[in-house]
Amino acid sequence: MARVNFEDVEVGQEIGPLLKGPLQTPHLMRWSAAMENWHKIHYDERFAKEHDKLPGLLINGSLKQQFIVQLLKDWAGREGWVWKVNFQFRAMNIVGETLSVWAKVKGKREAPAYGLVELDLGIRNEKGLESTPGSAVVALPYRGREAVPYPFVPPPAG
Amino acid sequence: MALLTDEVRKYIGAESTPFPACDPVEKGAVRRYAQAIMDPDPAYASDEAGARYGGAVAPPLYPAFMFRTPFGSPDVLTERAHDPDFDGLVMGVRDGLPELPLHGFSLLNGGAEVEFYRYARHGETVFQKSRYADIYERETRAGPMVFVIIETEYTNGAGELLMRARKTIIRRK
User: Fold this and answer.
1) Which of A5, B107, B142, B162 could hold A143 in an S-S bridge, CB 3.0 to 4.6 Å?
2) Would the pLDDT of B93 be above 60?
């Protein structure tokens, strides 16, 4: 993973997209099994539609959040650190969709030991539906200086 | 139409005592998880690739998914096999919090705010402490819904903070 220096990041810069899919029922089953969560709305189509009145099998929000973290983590690299991530599951993604995970630099601020990059982020399907708006704060090293401390030490309050 | 009763509201502030996940971070469980999320980061399998983190680690959000049904627990899937309202979820195990008396309500994941401090290393035991930070009702385009806010801290066996999460769970009739 390449090092990204704080100085090399510009406001408005786009990160990604990270593409996942098309996500089919086996993908959802594999994730349900990996986390041992048997919520029927991800594999029992009759329950999803007839009991929960959903349009189809839902792609797990718990899976979508993994993709967001992966995009940010891989961009920050080993020497950066994804500090804060938030996301809201505002719209459903249905089995069969391909998800495009994106982020865009909204702002930058300097802390003593590293720089902080604020990003907007989201997940878009093929039809352009934005399902998962959110934001993040990623710490990046200053050029020519040491990596962001690990474990992460938050900046002084403020 | 009020969904939220005083009986439910009294759970606000209820918290679990810190308790460990039933298994430590296991290499095979991490592999299955990493394959399921389709993140081939070598730090999830190799001490060398994970050297920055002190060795092989689990994916960042992994601690939040370690709180599974302990061995010897009642089998809820069998107990509720004939319940047409059973949604497949085995509540109350994962966060150590008492189940809210919202039987028959469907459950949707509304989102979360997460802060990361360190990754869980292979072999580490992870502890969590959760609390119902808030429970409130909102009128939405799809009707009234109950929003349940759960705050959780995840630590390792040395008491070091791994991550914090503030999750929003949406319950509706």
Assistant:
1) A5
2) no
